[in-house]
Amino acid sequence: MEDLPEALVTEILKRITSTSDLNYLSLVSKQLYKIEGNQRGAIRVGSGLCTATEALTSLCARFTNLRKLEIDYSGWIPEHGNQLDNKGLFVFSSHCSSLIDLTLSFCSYIDDSGLGCLAHCKKLVSLRLNSVPKITSIGLFSVAVGCISLSALHLIDCEKIDSVEWLEYLGMDGSLEELVVKNCKGINHHDLLKFGSGWMKLQKFEFERKRERHDRYIGYDFYDPSYDAHSTDIYDFSCESLKDLRLAHIKTWPEIGLRVVLGKCKALENLWLEYVYALNDNDMIALFRSCSNLKSISLGLNLQRYCSEDGYCETRTSFTDNSIYALALNCPMLQIVDLKFTGCSRDWPSEIGFTQKGFLALIQSCPIRVLVLNTANFFDDEGMKALSSSPHLETLELILCHAVTDAGMRFIAHTPCLSNLNTSGVS
Fold first, then answer.
1. I need a labelling partner for 49 at 20 to 30 A (CA). Which of 96, 119, 235, 307 fits?
2. pLDDT at 215 over 90
3. How many CB atoms are located within 10 Å of the residue 233 CB?
């Protein structure tokens, strides 16, 4: 091996994808140790990492072309030794000049001071902060100002972030293409509207509110099924680049909040709405009319109370067949449909706003390849019979669809392209 040209050895090592194999090979000779270190572009460290400055400096010197770094202390306990702290993060940020992707998970020793060190990472494109409890808005603002190449930011379970100056700055800068905020209780969905012109370039956006115990209950609020948040444009921004949108566990009433985003998406391809309160058909119709490229939709729907102006009140899921018909009419590229209904009684199919007739209109209008139905009490053997003639259906998953019997399952055996069938809790 020592006699082989370095270029050939490098090419051989490039073909080895297993990290453990590369680690073993690097111990065979000094030549392999050096070449493997120079070409390694990503490492993942955590418990067991020696946090002494000299050791970290040596680590950085070995991996001279490090582009992706993940520091993960999940499962850490004090007996495992010290975690990487602000000084250690400074070593990485000052020595790894090629770093473009950084993930910090469960790093309890790092605070705003350490995060400020990332200003050295002028090439940093992606930053993920997962359960970093000491980080506040001050540290995020220093990242927003210093990391001039940042285009993707993920914030998960960072509970001390309680203001959005950093978000306003990133919005004015307009470079962010991916923003994910989950379980950060100091950030609400109204704050995110302060992103302003930054929405123009954003391609992926996720917001999930931290769940609380009472979320599973219907509650006492009544929502207006005819309310139209899209009749007037009070927010002057566009989401014309947004392709992936996920909203989960948020309340859009009485303030408008993030529901206005639904009427501003023109390039949307993938949509996830999970237990978003107070939405109605007007939100979906506004969305579907502008999203002809929609390919995937996932809805998690629970029971909510709706009361119209004439005093008629009902308890049902958010959307009716009006939404289904708008989806069928305006989204000819739809291929994946995932519907989950929570809290709906099998004895009261009307608690689900959709009917089987409306649902089958969607199936017959769009080239659905993947269909997942969870507790879809409106769907029965007749629906299975109609579904069996779907020319594009490849994957079908039925969970707790109690109205489907063995007779319905026999119909589905004739579906022309079906290759994957999963059932659980059908009669």
1. 119
2. no
3. 10
Cβ distance 102 to 128 under 8 Å?
yes
| pLDDT band at residue 283 under the 50/70/90 scheme | very high
With a pLDDT cut of 70, the percent of the chain lying above it is 88
Check: CB of residue 298 under 8 Å from CB of residue 338: yes
Tokens 């009419």 -> residue: 329
Average pLDDT over residues 132-141: 95
Q: Which segments of 40-168 are extended strands (E)?
A: 42-46, 68-72, 101-105, 126-130, 152-156
Q: How much is the pLDDT for 120?
A: 86
User: What residues contact 119, with CB distance under 8 A and at least 6 apart?
Assistant: 93, 142, 143, 145, 146, 147
Name the nearest CA neighbour of 263 among 222, 299, 227, 304. 227
Q: Residue 279 — pLDDT band, cuts 50, 70, 90?
A: very high
Q: Are 155 and 181 in contact, with CB atoms under 8 Å apart?
A: yes
Question: Which residues share a beta bridge with 410?
Answer: none
Nearest to 279 by CA among 219, 227, 340, 217: 227
Q: Is 80 exceeded by the pLDDT of residue 4? A: no
Residue 414: both structure tokens together: 């004739």
Most confident of 80-84, 152-156, 311-315: 152-156
Could you tell me which residues come within 8 angstroms of residue 74 by beta carbon, excluding any fewer than 6 positions away? Answer: 46, 105, 106
Q: How far is CA 258 from CA 212, 226, 291, 368, 410, in A?
A: 20, 18, 17, 28, 44
Rounded Cα–Cα distance for residues 26 and 37 (Å): 8
Name the average pLDDT for the chain: 89
Which domains, and CATH codes, for the chain? 1-40 (1.20.1280), 42-187 (3.80.10.10)
